[in-house]
Automatic annotation (TrEMBL):
<dbReference type="GO" id="GO:0005085">
    <property type="term" value="F:guanyl-nucleotide exchange factor activity"/>
</dbReference>
<dbReference type="InterPro" id="IPR012854">
    <property type="entry name" value="Cu_amine_oxidase-like_N"/>
</dbReference>
<feature type="signal peptide">
    <location>
        <begin position="1"/>
        <end position="33"/>
    </location>
</feature>
<dbReference type="InterPro" id="IPR051553">
    <property type="entry name" value="Ran_GTPase-activating"/>
</dbReference>
<keyword id="KW-0732">Signal</keyword>
<dbReference type="Pfam" id="PF07833">
    <property type="entry name" value="Cu_amine_oxidN1"/>
</dbReference>
<protein>
    <recommendedName>
        <fullName>Copper amine oxidase-like N-terminal domain-containing protein</fullName>
    </recommendedName>
</protein>
<dbReference type="Pfam" id="PF13540">
    <property type="entry name" value="RCC1_2"/>
</dbReference>
<dbReference type="InterPro" id="IPR009091">
    <property type="entry name" value="RCC1/BLIP-II"/>
</dbReference>
<feature type="domain" description="Copper amine oxidase-like N-terminal">
    <location>
        <begin position="396"/>
        <end position="497"/>
    </location>
</feature>
<dbReference type="InterPro" id="IPR036582">
    <property type="entry name" value="Mao_N_sf"/>
</dbReference>
<dbReference type="GO" id="GO:0005737">
    <property type="term" value="C:cytoplasm"/>
</dbReference>
<dbReference type="InterPro" id="IPR000408">
    <property type="entry name" value="Reg_chr_condens"/>
</dbReference>
């Protein structure tokens, strides 16, 4: 993910975008539900949407930055929250530890991250974010013993970061690494070290351990961390200007290839000599193999990225999306769908975009849900951009729900992950076969996976949506929480389901 200096989450709040869901009453929560005998609708103080448009997929808060890698995606909203979806087999998303589940197919919030102003990825599983206070956070595969977000200690006053590297406001560049343990897992990061010199980068991008910086004059600099041939750790490649390239205003990387856009909007590609980097005890500096080549397109580009070794994703100055090959959607040409695209990002076989209203769109490969949409064909390929599924937030007693599983909005009803939600509310859960018993304060419920019937405090209740499964988690309708005494309110201005249960707070 290219890092653009000066971008802050709050900047996008000035853009005129707002999605309003209907203002609902508590009684609407039970639309179509029969209760016999049991708690009355008045006893449940919930306000959960009975209907909502899934077409405005990104939710009320506009997204301001998007990033993508090998079958995963992440995005930053104007409120400083980070959301992720796609493959999480190796912990790429930073919401679950490796092997817990293989993928998350709708945006889930990283509850530990707040006040983030920019995010970046190395496109092979590692993510990093810079907080509004200048702190640095990392998460995902290869970021230590845990894939969950943690602060990189010893860094302050940071304005931009890429996995393994951070740039201070005064131009000081720092790096840190995660050595591999004997079992192949990554260890905790060492103390960040300063790289000699001062650097005025206006943009950063990376692929795996190699990083490319774009300076204020349009020159490209190469640096990074590579594994030593002996396997005894990593070696720093010191920053050095890469000779032979035009002056660029935007760059991106894919394996050993660079793509850049010059001031006239022309797109160039170049190949970096990388073989020697992994065979010398003292690698670097980065050099080109041959001369850069002009891409054969008349488009005036604002940014360009490689979807694979030969296929380009181009965002034009007019906010259109184009692809030059068949790898993304099966054909070259303009991608229909979002208008006024202001940011685009290519993963591997998929791409994402943010339109003028701050909404997210996905296109291309969707085998792991990385494009953010249900699969509509056997190919698991989105042939045209579609809105990413809604990013629905859940908070418990004023704090974000800590869960690796996202809330779900289907048929106008919000469902939440059972285990993590009940735990956060201070309740307990026991299972017996397909039957689940929930205890929350003095209230009790008995539910069965796949059923829209429940027993609440000994009374039979018809739920407005069935107990289901999504991404490996059991999901329950918010209505059930209301019947158990939880104050449940839907905030249409933030796309957030607020759960308030004082007994949970007092029990802590």
């Amino acid at each position: 993910m290219p890092v653009r200096m000066g971008l802050r989450a709050g900047d996008a709040a000035k853009r005129p975008f707002r999605l309003l869901l209907p203002a609902l009453t508590a009684g609407m929560l039970f639309a179509g539900a029969a209760v016999s005998p049991g708690p009355t609708a008045a006893a449940a103080s919930a306000a959960v949407p009975a209907a909502a448009s899934t077409n405005a997929a990104s939710g009320p808060a506009p997204f301001v930055q998007v990033t993508a890698g090998a079958y995963y995606s992440a995005a930053l909203r104007a409120d400083g929250t980070v959301w992720a979806w796609g493959r999480t087999l190796y912990g790429e998303l930073g919401v679950l530890e490796p092997r817990v589940t293989s993928s998350i197919q709708r945006p889930v919030r990283l509850a530990a991250l707040r006040g983030i102003q920019s995010i970046a990825t190395n496109r092979v599983g590692s993510q990093v974010g810079v907080g509004s206070d200048g702190s640095v956070w990392e998460w995902g595969a290869g970021t230590g013993p845990s894939a969950l977000p943690k602060q990189v200690k010893g860094l302050a006053g940071i304005t931009a970061a890429i996995p393994g590297f951070a740039l201070q406001r005064n131009g000081t560049l720092w790096y840190w690494s995660h050595p591999l343990a004997a079992d192949g897992t990554s260890e905790a990061a060492g103390v960040p070290r300063r790289i000699p010199g001062t650097y005025r980068f206006t943009g950063l991008t990376s692929w795996s351990g190699l990083v490319y910086g774009l300076d204020e004059h349009g020159a490209v600099w190469g640096f990074g961390l590579v594994n030593q041939p002996s396997g005894a750790g990593q070696t720093l490649i010191s920053p050095a200007r890469i000779a032979g390239l035009p002056a660029f205003k935007q760059i991106s990387a894919y394996q050993n290839r660079l793509v850049g856009v010059d001031s006239a909007g022309r797109v160039w590609t170049a190949q970096v000599e990388t073989d020697a980097l992994y065979s010398r005890s003292t690698p670097g500096p980065l050099r080109l193999t041959g001369k850069p080549l002009r891409a054969g397109t008349p488009l005036k580009a604002a940014e360009a990225q490689l979807v694979d070794y030969n296929t380009l994703l181009i965002r034009t100055a007019a906010g259109e999306l184009w692809t030059t090959g068949t790898w993304l959607t099966g054909r070259a040409g303009r991608l229909s769908g979002p208008a006024g695209v202001r940011e685009a990002e290519a993963g591997i076989h998929h791409a994402l975009a943010i339109d003028a209203g701050g909404r997210l769109w996905g296109v291309g490969g969707n085998q792991w849900g990385e494009a953010g949409s249900p699969n509509v064909n056997r190919d698991r390929l989105l042939y045209r951009p579609v809105p990413v599924l809604p990013a629905i937030g859940v908070s418990v007693n004023g704090s974000p729900l800590s869960s690796g599983y996202p809330a779900d909005l289907r048929n106008g009803r919000v469902s939440v992950p059972l285990r993590d939600t009940i735990r956060s509310l201070g309740g307990s859960l026991t299972a017996s076969g397909s039957s689940l018993a929930v205890q929350l304060g003095q209230a009790r419920a008995q539910i069965t996976a796949g059923s829209a019937q429940a027993e609440v405090n000994g009374r039979s209740v018809a739920l407005n949506s069935p107990v289901s499964q999504s991404s490996g988690a059991v999901m329950i309708p918010a209505q059930l929480l209301a019947l158990l005494g939880v104050n449940t309110q839907w905030d249409s201005s933030s796309g957030e389901l607020h759960l308030d249960f004082p007994a949970a707070a007092s029990a802590k």
